[in-house]
């Protein structure tokens, strides 16, 4: 992910989601521009991932048979004030939350990032969510092996704290979160960087949003 300006990874004060209505996308709509993605198959992969996220986070209201979207990704229009720009890049990364003073971007490396679950992970950042292992209570559930982390990458494993810039979503710790790192992410020596404290727990899946991920997005965007 791309951390917003003013965020100091050495002095973190964020939790799972960015605090404040101003960081949510207005009207729960994310206008996007994928004109920089030249391959039609890559564009289709992105749009299918968006559709999957919209469907999974959608709500079926009483008396209805169809689902109502919680958040909507749609092509940008000339009247849109801010637009999510999706482009090729090095690695898989995204800006976090709705940003009025700097670009809203997703960067996807052609070799490795064009899978639905990976794209949904980046889109969840865009909606305002950080990594699960950044929760302030993570030490109850994980051991972080700093001695195995690549030089200069330790900030990715910082534990944040609830405060004025983050919102506590009130959910239990979620090993199955699409937003959780895997055991060996950013390893410098092939040894684990994260070890769950719960025997048999699996972390780092990149297939789909977990049930808790879905509940948190709905709660953050006040969908019911």
TrEMBL record:
Keywords: Hydrolase, Metal-binding, Metalloprotease, Protease, Zinc. This is Metalloendopeptidase. Residues 16-224 form the Peptidase M12A domain. Its cofactor is Zn(2+). The keyword Iron does not apply. GO terms for molecular function: metalloendopeptidase activity; zinc ion binding. It comes from Rotaria sordida. Zn(2+) binds at residues 121, 125, 131. GO terms for biological process: proteolysis. CDD domains: ZnMc_astacin_like (cd04280). Its EC number is 3.4.24.-.
